[in-house]
Amino acid sequence: MESRIKRTQRDYSLAFKLSVVEQVEKGELTYKEAQRRYGIQGRSTVLVWLRKHGRPGWSGWSLPTVRGVDMDRQGKALTPEQRIKELEVQLKEAREKAQLFEAVVNVLEKDYGVRVVKKPSGKSLRKSSSKG
Q1: CB of 21 within 8 A of CB of 27?
Q2: Which of 55, 74, 75, 54 is nearest to 66 (CA)?
Q3: Coiled-coil intervals in this record (predicted)?
């Protein structure tokens, strides 16, 4: 039987949080299993970590995975056709979000005179300092 250690919030290092997030995202654990295994008391603590430190766009409301297999709401494995349909819905939502963000940027620029600089994909805005 696993021993459970009750923890306080200050016990959670960033490395620990990232490790838990990675395990949940890979499907090795559900967020509830992670809570039990690591003695995390807050009901939504792991979900908050997933939203904050997980993959971009992680919402927590997508279909669950069990050990890397995509599952439907009744716990049955998804067929490739069902998975494709789910991904098409997610793609449509992502495109709609992108259009919304573009519209917001246009309003900011036209109506408020705010210049929005878009970060080129794959490049950091931070200047690298080279010390020799």
Answers
A1: no
A2: 75
A3: 77-111
Q: How far is CA 125 from CA 101, 120, 129, in A?
A: 20, 9, 12
Q: Is 72 exposed, middle or buried (0-12, 13-18, 19+ CB in 10 A)?
A: middle
115-132 confidence digits (pLDDT tens): 888 777 666 555 655 554
CA–CA distance, 127 with 132 (Å, rounded to integer): 16
pTM: 0.40
**Between vectors from CA 125 to CA 123 and to CA 131, what angle results, nearest 5°?**
100
**pLDDT tens readout for residues 58-104:** 555 444 555 555 655 555 677 888 888 888 989 999 999 999 989 99
CB-facing half-sphere around the CA of 73: CA atoms within 13 A? 3
- Give the distance between the most distant pair of CA atoms in the chain: 63
Interior CA angle at 3 toward 8 and 66, to 5°? 90
| Structure letter (DSSP) for residue 119 | P
Name the residue ranges covered by the structural domains of the chain. Answer: 1-78, 79-117
